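Quick one, tokens below:
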């Protein structure tokens, strides 16, 4: 929550995440509300959940539905009644200078898992977005960091970059470890995700 930070239900979900060792993304929501503070909300994630949370998108100080994408170096503005109109443009120099501390934190965290990115960061080279995405995915899958996205779900602002993050950063089913399944006869067995295997589905 962009106003209240980590809430009790977040902590409940986090315990389940820890139990099942799930790679995680965060969405700091309700940034359109008075009193919202993205930096403060991110700090509560680190303090209360004990995880390295790094921003991938950040809202501008006077939030108007615009976020800065720290990997793609773009400004994304979500217009229309439900944010269905997405305007993307290259960051202007002033905005990019403002976003630099956020980007540096992202690069340093991701570089811990990727030698190529680490070398580029240390030599002050500008890494390609593909290199940053690859390093960030590796760190996310290892559970070392949790990428964070900013916006307002009610207004559909910032949701599109989050969905892109799901595709780019989280594991596909075959990349997950086997799951313990409960058979109709009361028995149990471990089931690996195999695209060529038989269908395994849960109806509820």
């Amino acid at each position: 929550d962009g106003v209240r930070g980590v809430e009790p239900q977040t902590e409940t979900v986090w315990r389940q995440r820890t139990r099942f060792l799930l790679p995680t993304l965060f969405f700091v929501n309700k940034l359109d509300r008075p009193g919202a503070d993205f930096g403060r909300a991110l700090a509560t994630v680190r303090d209360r959940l004990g995880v390295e949370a790094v921003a991938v998108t950040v809202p501008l100080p006077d939030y108007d539905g615009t976020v800065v994408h720290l990997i793609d170096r773009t400004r994304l503005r979500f217009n229309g009644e439900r944010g269905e109109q997405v305007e993307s443009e290259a960051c202007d120099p002033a905005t990019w200078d403002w976003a630099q501390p956020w980007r540096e934190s992202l690069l340093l965290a991701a570089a811990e898992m990727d030698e190529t990115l680490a070398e580029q960061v240390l030599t002050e080279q500008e890494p390609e977005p593909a290199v940053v995405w690859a390093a960030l995915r590796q760190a996310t899958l290892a559970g070392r960091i949790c990428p964070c996205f900013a916006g307002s779900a009610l207004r559909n602002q910032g949701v599109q970059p989050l969905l892109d993050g799901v595709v780019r950063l989280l594991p596909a089913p075959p990349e997950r470890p086997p799951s313990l399944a409960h058979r109709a006869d009361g028995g149990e067995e471990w089931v690996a995700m195999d695209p060529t295997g038989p269908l395994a589905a849960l109806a509820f």
